[in-house]
Amino acid sequence: QVQLVESGGGLVQSGGSLRLSCAASGRTFSRDYAGWFRQAPGKEREFVGHIRWSSRTTVYADSVKGRFTISGDNAKNTVYLQMNGLKLEDTAVYYCATRTPGSTYDNWGQGTQVTVSS
């Protein structure tokens, strides 16, 4: 089982940037999809985007497309979520998760808080 640890969250002003990291230990991402999700207070968790590790193919939710970028580093076994042009509505706890092809996301990190202020 891959153990996932997110970091990089914090407080940022509207329009600013943050980069979240998701470090994996236990085994590599090699066959996995690594996804980012977020959950705002009082709302359900929502999909932000994912990267297919083998091909580096990415998919994004419409709400973040053009502002967020997911990338990966083999050497560090880490997935990144670069967030630019942050908006108040991006405030949430951000989680990374993994799944193998054809399965659901079943391995989750503990989350990192992102707060965007005006």
Give a brief description.
The chain is mainly β. It has strands at residues 3-7, 10-13, 18-25, 33-39, 46-52, 57-60, 68-73, 78-83, 92-99, 107-108, 112-117.
Count the beta strands: 11
The percentage of residues in β strands lies in over 45%
Rounded radius of gyration (Å): 13 Å
Shape: globular
| Average residue-wise pLDDT | 94
Q: Structural class, judged by helices and strands?
A: mainly beta
Main pleated sheet: 7 strands, mixed
> Share of helix among residues?
under 10%
Instruction: Spell the H/E element sequence.
Output: EEEEEEEEEEE
Total number of helices? 0
Give the low-pLDDT segments: none
What does the model show?
There is one protein chain. With 118 residues, the protein is mainly β. Helix content is 0%, strand content 53%. It has strands at residues 3-7, 10-13, 18-25, 33-39, 46-52, 57-60, 68-73, 78-83, 92-99, 107-108, 112-117. Strands 2, 4, 5, 6, 9, 10 and 11 form a seven-stranded mixed β-sheet that branches. A four-stranded antiparallel β-sheet has the order 1-3-8-7, with no helix packed on it. A hairpin with a 4-residue loop joins β5 (46-52) and β6 (57-60). The chain is globular. It starts with a strand and ends with a strand.
Task: Describe how the helices and strands are arranged.
Elements: E1 3-7, E2 10-13, E3 18-25, E4 33-39, E5 46-52, E6 57-60, E7 68-73, E8 78-83, E9 92-99, E10 107-108, E11 112-117
Quick tags:
single chain; 118 residues; mainly beta; seven-stranded mixed sheet; four-stranded antiparallel sheet; 0% helix; 53% strand; globular
